[in-house]
Each structure stands twice: as structure tokens, then as C-alpha cells.
């Protein structure tokens, strides 16, 4: 790493940029700007760099550190999912790629300024907003979005001061996707399981003191429509010191419907049925009887109101639903019944939401995406998008990889056909660096990130963790400047 940083330093041509930028290959090369350094941004850059030997790619990121939701979204006890960072590091280290962190596009520099500097812009900035529940009481103390809760235990600087109150017995999570199960698992896992992960120390300390012993994971539809995958379900089923707590009636008729569902859904449902309905073997019976914590799915329920006591969340009122139709297309319809569930912690995991970045960029506020056709932003030549801002917040990292490759292919097709004119010379980062310098914005390049990475890794070694993350932008910048 030190050798790489030294070589990078030798090539530095932009003294104000922290960690040093790299000289452009050629002033006449096609210059592409990618906004956002999560999986969508890196996969788009990777495909562009591999496909053409003349393309130069600059990646701009709001935070001083790269990798987006791989760093701040993936559960700390899923280190294998974070291995994609190795691929992204290779891309960032490519001679025709530069990373500029600590640059807030839309604020520090406008999209129009980027369009004048680059031949094309790819917007890959993800979904940093929350979908609202739209019910009374959702802003009470004790109610959190899953995005913020995950950001808290994963060290997202904006969530550092969340300090959730974990003094209650029961938590209710609204939503049944993988993020909801991640949150449930982190709330209920023995802290000794988490001590060797990159979970932040403040979160680990809070979880060690947590009194949460029961987590209900609520969905508006039924077992055949649940959004999680089998891996996450199996982790819940096998969670130490924890037993499942299901409602048998929720699974009526499910076995009969299994013959018509695809194999992944069938395996997932079979595991749910086994967990909910089958009498466990002696060993599993004993394990469950000794468990001090429990978790369970609650199906056919929608939030109506968060109930308050003493100015904070004390329960949630749920509408009871029935399904119309079948399979993925089944619709939840209100029955008119409601039920109240006492709880002191409510976590809404009903989806992330992209936000508009700049008034010059078209944005569909209803769908919360940039309107596009195969990644080409509608009515905006030279603008492209990839990842969640293109599709909405769906799928896993592999899904994002494929949709980012599709966007890169669209861009390359436009270059080949002449629909994207790359014949004129563009200054790229040279002019943007000058603008940022005038505005007092000091970018962090990839070698600056490597300094942060090195400090975090060494801090983690002390306590047997892969890393101990720096938790504020200020700390990150101090290390990058060192």
C-alpha cells in the first residue's frame, strides 16, 4: 500500500487535492464523470474502462470515503458481501480513473458545470432518503427509519448521534425485506457475535446494554409475498439464544400454493413453514426452551398509527389485511379490523428513496427516480444514470452491477454512433479542481482514502476487528491530510 501511495504521489499534479490527483492521460480523450462511489458508480466506471482504452473516468463522492452502501449498508456480520471492495479498489487504482471524495455535487459544483467539463455525466448517487410511512406518530421519539438505524451501527457520519433507546422489551420492524432482517438480527444477536465485525464501538456498547428481547417483523401481505431471501431467513432461524414465534393461522393454504411458485421462493417458503408449523426435534426443542429472546413474522398487517405514552412511542396500531389475487401480484386489502401491539421501538424498513440532485436534472418525484431509457436520462443528452436512482431501491449488489453495466453499454453505444459527441476537447477534472479550489473545497483522492483505511484497520487490530471506522467527516479529513 505504501509503495502504491508513493507512486501515486509522484504523479500528483494538483497540489490542493488531498492525497494527490493523477494527471490526465490525454486532453483529447473522452472524459466521463460518475457521481457517486457506491456499487453503481464503480461498476459503471469498471465497464467503461474495460470497454475502451481511451476513456477517462472521474468519480465524485459526497463523503471523504468511497463504496457507499457496501461500507454503510451491508450488515457488519456479512463481511463476504464486502469483498466487492477489492474489485472497486482495482477500478479506482486504474491509470485512467480518479476518485474525488468530499465533493458534494449539486452544492460544491453544479451539474451544468460538470457538463461543461466532461463529455458525459453518469448519476449513480443512490437513494439517501427514506420512504415515509405516512401515519400519525411516525416522528415520535423511539421511531426510526431502517436506513438511519443501519447507518448508526455502520458508522455513517450523518447517523452518528442517533443514539436509539433500546430500553424496551419489544421492537416492531415494519417491512420484511433483507434490511428488516438485518436490523432484527443485529438487535437480537449476542454481542460476542458482533465483537469481531466492523460494527461501530458506540453501537456495540449500546447493544450490549439493550433490553430488547422480542422483535416482530411486520408485512402487509402474506408468506408467499415476503421480500427477504433464504440466507437472511436461515440466519434468523439459527440465531443463538433466540426462538421463532409465529402465528400458525398466517400459513393457512400456503403449502397448497407452493407447487406453482419458482424454486427460490419455494425453498424460502418451505423453511418458513418448517420453522412455524413443524414440531422441532429434541435438540432444537431444548435450544428453543432455553432461549431468552424471540423473533417472529407478522403477516397481513399495515401500520395505522404509532401510539404514544409519555411523549414517545409505546405501541403501534396495525390494520388487519386480507389478500386479493395470488402470487407476487396479490394486493393487501383492509378488512376494517385493527390490533394494537405494545412496543417501545419502531423501525420502518419500507424502502429507501432517491432525492433530486440538481434542478437541471429531470426527476420523477412520484417514483423517486431519474426518468430514463436504458440509463439515458430523458431529454438530457450527455446525462446518464445507474443504480437505485435509475431503477428505484431494488435488488442486491449483483442486480446493481447488471443495471450499471447496461447504462455503461448505452453510453458506449452513443459514443460509437455519434449520438454522444466526444470529438471536442473537454478539460475534465482540471477545470473542476480549479472551481473547487476557488470555493475552498478540498477533495480527498483515493490515496487519501487509503490513509483512512490504514488508520481504521490498525485501530481495529487492537480489539480484534477488521476495522474501527472513523465516525465523523472531520476525523476522516484530518487523517486524509496527514
UniProtKB/TrEMBL annotation:
**Location of this chain's protein in the cell:** Mitochondrion
> So where does NADP(+) get bound?
176-179, 220-221, 232, 395
Reaction catalysis annotation: 2 reduced [adrenodoxin] + NADP(+) + H(+) = 2 oxidized [adrenodoxin] + NADPH
Keyword Repeat: yes or no?
no
Origin superkingdom: Eukaryota
Q: What class of enzyme is it?
A: oxidoreductase
User: What does the UniProt keyword field contain?
Assistant: Electron transport, FAD, Flavoprotein, Mitochondrion, NADP, Oxidoreductase, Transit peptide, Transport
Q: This chain belongs to which protein, by name? A: NADPH:adrenodoxin oxidoreductase, mitochondrial
Q: What organism is this sequence from?
A: Salarias fasciatus
Classification lineage: Eukaryota, Metazoa, Chordata, Craniata, Vertebrata
Amino acid at each position: 500500500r505504501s509503495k502504491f501511495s508513493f507512486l501515486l504521489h509522484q504523479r500528483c499534479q494538483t497540489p490542493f487535492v488531498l492525497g494527490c490527483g493523477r494527471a490526465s492521460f490525454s486532453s483529447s480523450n473522452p472524459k466521463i464523470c460518475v457521481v457517486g462511489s457506491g456499487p453503481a458508480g464503480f461498476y459503471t466506471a469498471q465497464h467503461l474502462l474495460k470497454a475502451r482504452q481511451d476513456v477517462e473516468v472521474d468519480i465524485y463522492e459526497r463523503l471523504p470515503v468511497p463504496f457507499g452502501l457496501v461500507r454503510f449498508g451491508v450488515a457488519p456480520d456479512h463481511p463476504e458481501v464486502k469483498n466487492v471492495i477489492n474489485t472497486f479498489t482495482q477500478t479506482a487504482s486504474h491509470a485512467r480513473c480518479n476518485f474525488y471524495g468530499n465533493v458534494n455535487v449539486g452544492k460544491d459544483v453544479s451539474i451544468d458545470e460538470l457538463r461543461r467539463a466532461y463529455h458525459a455525466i453518469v448519476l449513480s448517487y443512490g437513494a439517501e432518503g427514506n420512504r415515509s410511512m405516512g401515519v400519525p406518530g411516525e416522528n415520535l421519539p423511539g421511531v426510526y427509519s431502517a436506513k438511519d438505524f443501519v447507518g448508526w451501527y455502520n458508522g455513517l457520519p450523518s447517523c452518528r448521534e442517533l443514539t436509539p433507546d433500546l430500553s424496551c422489551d419489544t421492537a416492531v420492524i415494519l417491512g420484511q425485506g433483507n434490511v428488516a432482517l438485518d436490523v432484527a438480527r443485529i438487535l437480537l444477536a449476542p454481542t460476542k457475535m458482533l465483537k469481531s465485525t466492523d460494527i461501530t464501538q458506540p453501537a456495540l456498547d449500546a447493544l450490549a446494554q439493550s433490553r430488547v428481547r422480542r422483535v416482530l417483523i411486520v408485512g402487509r401481505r402474506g408468506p408467499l409475498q415476503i421480500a427477504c431471501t433464504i440466507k437472511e431467513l436461515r440466519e434468523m432461524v439459527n440465531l443463538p439464544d433466540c426462538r421463532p414465534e409465529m402465528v400458525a393461522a398466517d400459513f393457512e393454504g400456503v403449502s397448497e400454493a407452493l407447487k406453482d411458485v419458482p424454486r427460490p421462493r419455494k425453498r424460502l417458503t418451505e423453511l418458513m413453514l418448517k420453522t412455524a408449523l413443524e414440531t422441532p426435534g429434541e435438540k432444537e426443542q431444548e435450544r428453543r426452551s432455553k432461549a431468552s429472546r424471540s423473533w417472529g413474522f407478522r403477516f397481513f398487517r399495515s401500520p395505522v398509527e404509532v401510539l404514544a405514552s409519555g411523549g414517545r412511542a409505546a405501541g403501534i396500531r396495525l390494520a388487519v389485511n386480507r389478500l386479493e389475487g395470488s402470487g407476487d401480484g396479490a394486493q393487501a386489502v383492509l378488512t376494517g379490523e385493527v390490533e394494537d401491539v405494545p412496543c417501545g421501538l419502531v423501525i420502518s424498513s419500507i424502502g429507501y428513496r432517491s432525492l433530486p440532485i440538481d434542478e437541471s436534472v429531470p426527476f420523477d418525484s412520484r417514483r423517486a427516480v431519474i426518468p430514463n431509457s436504458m440509463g439515458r436520462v430523458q431529454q438530457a443528452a450527455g446525462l446518464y444514470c445507474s443504480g437505485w436512482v435509475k431503477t428505484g431501491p431494488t435488488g442486491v449488489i449483483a442486480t446493481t452491477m447488471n443495471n450499471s453495466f447496461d447504462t455503461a453499454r448505452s453510453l458506449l453505444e452513443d459514443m460509437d454512433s455519434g449520438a454522444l459527441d466526444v470529438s471536442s476537447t473537454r478539460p475534465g477534472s482540471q477545470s473542476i479542481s480549479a472551481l473547487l479550489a476557488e470555493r475552498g473545497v478540498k477533495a480527498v483522492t483515493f490515496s487519501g482514502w487509503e490513509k483512512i483505511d490504514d488508520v481504521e484497520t490498525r485501530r481495529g487490530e487492537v480489539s480484534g476487528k477488521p476495522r474501527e471506522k472513523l465516525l465523523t467527516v472531520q476525523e476522516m479529513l484530518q487523517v486524509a491530510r496527514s
